[in-house]
Amino acid sequence: MKKIYTLILLFLGISTFTYAQNCNCESNFQWVKKTFEENDAGFQYAIDKKGLSAYNAHNSEFLNKIRNAKSNIECTQTIYEWLKFFRADHFSISLNEQPNASQFNNNLQTSNLKKWETVKIDLKKYEKYLNSKKEPDLEGVWESSPYIIAVKKIDNDYKGFIVSAQGLENWKPNDLKFNIGSDKKTGSFYLRNKSSQEIKNVQIIGKNYLVINDIILKRVSPKFENDKAIDTYFKSISSQKPFLEEINNSTLLLRIPTFDGSQKKYIDSILLANKQKIESRENLIIDLRNNGGGDDISYSELIPYIYTNPIRTVRTQMYSTVLNNKRMLDSYENYEKYGYSKEDREYIKKAYDKLNDNLGRFVMIQGNGDGKIIDEEKLDKILPYPKNIGIIINNKNGSTAEQFLLASKQSKKVKLFGTTTAGVLDISNMYFVESPCKEFKLGYSLSKSLRVPDMEIDGKGIQPDYYIDKSISEYDWVKYVNEILNEK
Full-prediction pTM beyond 0.90? Predict the structure, then answer.
């Protein structure tokens, strides 16, 4: 059952076993290391590829860094770097929001303890000055929710300061938010908690958009006329929800920022509301840029539009351990809480029993023991329209987004445009567990694809059919794909 297949994609959190320990960075690291080594589905695979000696050297190097960590924030960052030995993604380490005050001290940065720098000017006079400007530059009033930020050149630097920060009590009007140096490329940016981040990239794109590292600000004043392609691009990368737009009489653009399970209803709603339009247009562009994945079920209603022949999906194996299997047991015991039926519950129980009977092994729970290594999806018909589908991809596509691309590549209608994807799919199905001191939450993976090692995606990614090189601006990618799809 397709519905049951999605059970292995749950993201659940649960506390692990506990044992007495002091709550410092080294003891937390030792817990992370032990938990990951004993339970992560990709641990041994990484050791087999890189070698035990390389792993031991890696541990020695990072143990010194761990012992020198001055705060929980620095500890978290160091453990994250340690985890990168195994793969590029499908792991995480995060700091719980409210750790116990008696535990390992989460020191505030010294910058938070001293008086914060402010920029005090007459805002009304400044806006009058801005409205007299004929050409766009860094100076202006910009919005990046929940902030409104004014930028003014003072001496040789460009200082961005708060006009308003709705709902954030630690940010007051006139507080310095960022400082960009005279080179207009580097400086310092202060995050929501007022910790400092180095600015490595500053771009004004078009006339009304400012990009600082990965942060997008839209000009409030003075407003200049902009290019429609640029507006569409920033609408695409800024939107948290999917949308559909008409490019021309023959082409539609469908933007899907994420396949997160919460977005399925919005994706399905757009497809249903525009069913007649999609099925009467020759071309469909699906923009997946920066879509990092989610749940496979989220793209199920897209399959009929891309389908031309049976879609083969290689199955996964779950790594069975006492800790890992707690997830399945929790789903069984609290099935109503997670929205499962009694029929689902029986399947979950069988899966749990099978896993529990095979501790320390990889177990395939799909297919009710039919022994197949692939699932094959066959539809009753092939839709005549859209005739051509261009999917735009980049290096931030991973996980479920890559699974969708593997399915899409099997269609005669589909071509991929852009750059190579992230390559984070083979080791997947993340599970989140809390540290014994309840300060950290570790995310690791429970499954390994049966594609490994014959068709690895991790560390390689999925290649586009049409590579979009750096000579084409990102806001022109849709235009580029549209021109190719409409060539006669």
Answer: no
